[in-house]
Amino acid sequence: xxxxxxxxxxxxxxxxxxxxxxxxxxxxxxxxxxxxxxxxxxxxxxxxxxxxxxxxxxxxxxxxxxxxxxxxxxxxxxxxxxxxxxxxxxxxxxxxxxxxxxxxxxxxxxxxxxxxxxxxxxxxxxxxxxxxxxxxxxxxxxxxxxxxxxxxxxxxxxxxxxxxxxxx
Length: 168
Description:
Layout: E1 2-4, E2 14-19, E3 22-28, E4 31-35, E5 38-44, E6 49-56, E7 59-62, H1 70-80, H2 82-112, H3 115-120, H4 132-151
Antiparallel strand pairs: 1-2, 2-3, 4-5, 5-6, 6-7
Helix pairs in contact: 1-2, 2-4
């Protein structure tokens, strides 16, 4: 299985199913491949693979990523250093939640600065007025945290709200 997040000519994510190294099927994501006895489901987010699961009558099983892919290296790190991996995950979640808490009032402030909204509703001032360097640092940490979540194939609609699209 191979997943290209950006696909041909940026038309969306694509997945390719291989058998013994030979390309046998391809599809845009989300994809469902029927193989003897099971289905393989593939989904992505803006930042990486959301899931590649074997689906049988008894349930779903996450497929292991290729050992040479970034997701595979992250999975091997998790196997070798489970405690460190768990703490990295907790830190990533904390960064994303803090980013979300700071970003929501900032977006509301931006919207209420528009003349049409300000004239009819009034303005709102975010309680978080961060210096520029801290905003940049927060964006960089958010990108790193989102990348970590994507590489570990973990996704939660609320925690990863800023990294998902609402129409997926």
